[in-house]
Design goal:
single chain, 516 residues, alpha/beta, four-stranded antiparallel sheet, 14 helices, 14 strands
């Protein structure tokens, strides 16, 4: 075949493909992620104290999964699982601020290759190379990048910080946008932010997303937008008027945790909770204000989500846009004596998961066990894009009523993490030391398996936990060492082993060797 004939053939194939999709345009995708948003902090999920009217509005027309679990309770490994559809032990991105392997195919790159216009606004935390620059984010598949990873070490790469320097009258005097106000009157929120609501990164993330949404909606290509809020991640600064929104609300607090309670936990958990300056005995009034500020930060995010939904409707894109709302992990909020995350307790590993596509996905509450790795294959099937090899999640499209295939519910979900957490900066004096692990815990990679009723955690030093979630939802009584539960321990250990053995399929038999 001549080069000209070949070119003509390729052109014909291209035109045929264009015609094929001309009458069946793929839906747009809007993936909204919050950082450290607990599953139980959502009005639609039954929380009677929090104000999330816009997320509740989204949930009312979407599928709300009440048992959604992340594959690692820490930012980077969890986000890597969302973006690859693969478990942490497979993609091997295990610690914050570490690059992911260039062999991993990431969500934005997959959508871009399928003809989507792609944009990032806010925090990504997934890069092939560091430092976390806009160019590094573009390498992962984003065409438009408005980057803000949200901590001082990354501020020099932040589009938000550059924007605030230009627009906020206080920017020169108040460089630390996480700073608490001084001289707060007694009885008021001690976590009130110094900077105004209009200049917070939450407001910036929402309005910047809307700006790009407006522009991309006018384009010829479908769009994939990843809108990623820093909040409600700590610290707990919250601007006026949100700082007073929960002043008179008596939010239920977790039961106090004693040092004796902590000493009964597996050693890796003890070291995690007691690292640095332990907070397990913090004053109850301080904890109360933390809860109020945490709830208020979610309400501020909720407002921005509502404005995004309003714009989608105004642009006429609400019906042909798949919307996902989720979080990379939760927050202990001093349950079990720990703030932050990094554990396998429900507060850390269970997250909100809302997925909506009007007239395609059946709205309602879904109690099935689902995982973060399911997000990618669900979006790809919905958008008629083939999943790349190695994806370990499963599409939820059959469950949502838009497929002839039957959906086989999961019997268990899994999570894994380095416990105690690697502190790469050394500020808590718990770095990784080759041959010694972290804080003396050798190869500290812990694993979790959870069914409807049972949760089993295995730590690298051989210690284990078994919780009966039906009778002990607070995960307070470890049954792993009671002889009456030996059979359950064996069953859960077997589930964990089977998962580790079967999650990956090896591709070492290269096609070239099969030609002989």
């Amino acid at each position: 075949m001549s080069l000209r004939s070949l070119a003509d053939t390729l052109l014909l194939v291209t035109l045929s493909t264009a015609c094929l999709f001309a009458g069946a345009k793929r839906p747009n995708v809007l993936f909204i992620m919050a950082d450290q948003h607990r599953a139980d902090c959502l009005g639609a999920a039954g929380n009677k104290f929090i104000r999330t009217p816009q997320l509740d509005r989204l949930a009312a027309r979407s599928a709300l999964f009440t048992n959604a679990f992340v594959q690692s309770p820490v930012c980077v490994p969890s986000r890597a699982s969302f973006f690859t559809g693969r478990y942490p032990h497979s993609h091997k991105n295990r610690v914050n601020y570490t690059p992911i392997a260039k062999t991993e195919r990431l969500m934005p790159a997959i959508f871009r290759a399928a003809g989507y216009a792609t944009a990032l606004v806010g925090k990504t935390h997934i890069y092939y190379e560091y430092p976390p620059t806009a160019d590094a984010a573009r390498d992962t598949g984003f065409e438009i990048v408005e980057l803000h990873d949200g901590i001082p070490a990354t501020d020099k790469f932040s589009a938000y910080v550059a924007w605030r320097d230009q627009h906020d009258p206080q920017a020169a005097a108040v460089k630390n946008y996480r700073m608490y106000a001084k001289n707060v009157e007694p009885g008021r929120n001690p976590f009130r932010a110094v900077i105004d609501d209009a200049y917070t990164d939450t407001t910036w993330t929402g309005q910047t997303t809307r700006r790009h949404l407006q522009a991309m909606s006018a384009g010829e290509r479908p769009f994939f937008i990843f809108c990623s809020f820093w909040k409600p991640h700590s610290p707990y600064e919250v601007p006026v008027p949100f700082d007073r929104m929960y002043d008179d609300v008596q939010i239920p607090l977790p039961a106090p945790t004693t040092l004796d309670d902590i000493r009964r936990l597996p050693e890796p958990l003890q070291k995690l909770i007691l690292r640095g300056k332990p907070e397990y005995d913090m004053p109850r009034d301080e904890l109360e204000w933390i809860y109020r500020s945490y709830y208020a930060s979610i309400t501020q995010v909720d407002r921005e989500v509502g404005l995004i939904l309003d714009l989608l409707e105004k642009l006429g894109k609400a019906d042909d846009t798949v919307i996902v709302y989720s979080a990379d992990h939760g927050d202990q909020l001093l349950e079990h004596g720990l703030t932050g995350k990094n554990t396998f307790f429900e507060a850390s590993v269970r997250v909100p998961y809302i997925v909506g596509y009007p007239e395609h996905f059946k709205p309602g509450k879904y109690d099935e066990l689902v995982e973060a790795v399911d997000v990618l294959p669900t979006l790809l099937e919905t958008c008629r894009i083939d999943s790349p090899p190695g994806v370990q999640g499963r599409s939820l499209v059959p469950l949502l009523g838009t497929s002839d295939r039957a959906y086989k519910p999961r019997e268990a979900v899994f999570s894994e993490n380095i416990i105690p957490e690697v502190i790469t900066g050394g500020r808590m004096e718990m770095p990784y030391v080759a041959g010694q692990g972290v804080a003396g815990i050798r190869h500290p990679d812990a694993k979790m398996v959870r069914t409807d009723r049972w949760k089993f955690n295995y730590y690298a030093n051989g210690q284990v936990e078994l919780y009966d979630l039906k009778n002990d939802p607070g995960e307070t009584t470890n049954l792993a060492y009671e002889s009456s539960h030996a059979a359950t321990v064996a069953e859960m250990r077997g589930r964990l082993l089977e998962w580790l053995i079967t999650a990956d399929e090896q591709d070492q038999i290269a096609p070239r060797w099969l030609k002989f």
